[in-house]
Design brief:
Order of helices and strands of chain A: HHHHHHHHH
Number of strands of chain A: 0
Largest sheet of chain B: none
Oligomer: heterodimer
Largest sheet of chain A: none
CATH architecture of the largest domain in chain A: Orthogonal Bundle
Strand content of chain B: under 5%
Shape of chain A: globular
Order of helices and strands of chain B: HHHHHHHHHHHHHHHHH
Shape of chain B: rod-shaped
Number of strands of chain B: 0
Helix content of chain A: 55-70%
Amino acid sequence: MDEKALITAAQQGDVDAFNRLVLAYQNMTYNLAYRILGDGDAAADATQDAFLSAYRAIGRFRGGSFKAWLLRIVTNACYDQLRVKQRRPTASLDALLVADPASGPSSVSFADEAEQPEEYALRQELNRVIQAGIGTLPADQRITLVLSDIQGFSYQEIAEITGVSLGTVKSRLSRARAKLRDFLLARGELLPARYRLTGSMADSE
Amino acid sequence: MVNILRGIGKSEHERVAEMLSAYIDGELTPAQKARVEAHLAECEECAQNLHTLRQTVSLLGQLPTVRAPRSFVIREAQVAPRRRAGLRWTRAYPALQGATVLAFLLFVVIFAGDVALTHFAPAIGGAPLAAYRSPVTEVPAAQWAAQEQAAEGTKETVVAEKVAPVEMTATPAETPIPPVLPAPTVTPVPAAADNTAPTPTLVTREVMEDTAQPTTEETRMALAEKTAEARPSPPPTIEATPLPTATPVEVAKAPPPEQEGGFSEEMPAAGGLPPVSPARVALWVIEGGLLILAIALLAATLWMRRRRRRNWD
């Protein structure tokens, strides 16, 4: 069954059909939530909330991009989680910076599993710093940055998902990247040499 | 040289700095792109910024994809707002049950008062009082059966639950009342005796089914024996049970005084009054309304009981 047929079935109350959509999108959804929230538990909560909301609202889905529609619900669920976090802040973001390398999320999958242990540790350390940097951004910029540079959505798609104009997407992304760049530069000593942001133009791809 | 240029084109530098992010993504118009590239050729700071921004973007891109730690498929139970609403509804069940009992009780009291006033008004101190007292002293059969059941070791609460349904099943017997209701002008008492007569049998049958009681005669005999005992210490279920069972007893007790013929002389006196007073019409309207309300409540209660049972099964 293609996506359209599954959506139609789900709209008629077919939970199984909806669950096939869940299975198709849950990794992307969880990854998005994880990168926005920087915390596995909060990401799981946001993902679960998002799929429940989506099921309840699917009757109101009127064509267009299902992915964009779903991700809009996911980002809203992330906003909710961020509000919860603000009320009772956890140490998870700080922990990302200081925690020992072994405490990373167990579900992280690495592109190259055959990496040398030292490489692996350096890369994990770098990823922790990046994630901590994302965590310093305001919610709007953070979500825009993750959608663009981690999920690879176009400006047009991000505008659709976040419900703002193209110009707003452009400026949010510009500010988010600049802030994250400054964050990474400030912690340049933490980064392995090959990732340090001090290279000359000759190094750039 | 660079410093001079920067000083002159300060706003240009800022504007280009803001465009670098979109430049990386190829989201600029050809004119904007040419402008940025022209500036980059002369401004080392912007060139450096572009480089570090590119690196930042590429670092974000190399972040590993985090896989969902578990399945997020939805279970039916999580998304059943209708069923949840239904359950919330059935929480109103005890209230509805109480309202039904209350409506029937009110109807019986008013109807009995109506009958008493119509037929025994002048002799209010005599027979009617006795008729009113008798249901109080004679403990209803179902209630007494409950007491005996409790003595046998069953919990009283369980018995009370078993007796409660008797109200529900016994009361429908009163539904034939509406057609008879207009009758009170002629002979209200026989009518009442008529439709309440089935109630005792229903009660005993129900009790027999539920609690495996002996035959009806045995129960009644036992009742007659133990009435005296029951009088001094009424069982705790007295609140729940008196209504439906008291109804037949009360009305059944009513006829005898009339059949005695002791009031035959009062009838002409009643006939001497104007045929129908507005007060009596109002009373009938109240009685009829109450009865309809009570029956509607009973129907709602029964419907909800079935729904609730289905939900909990």
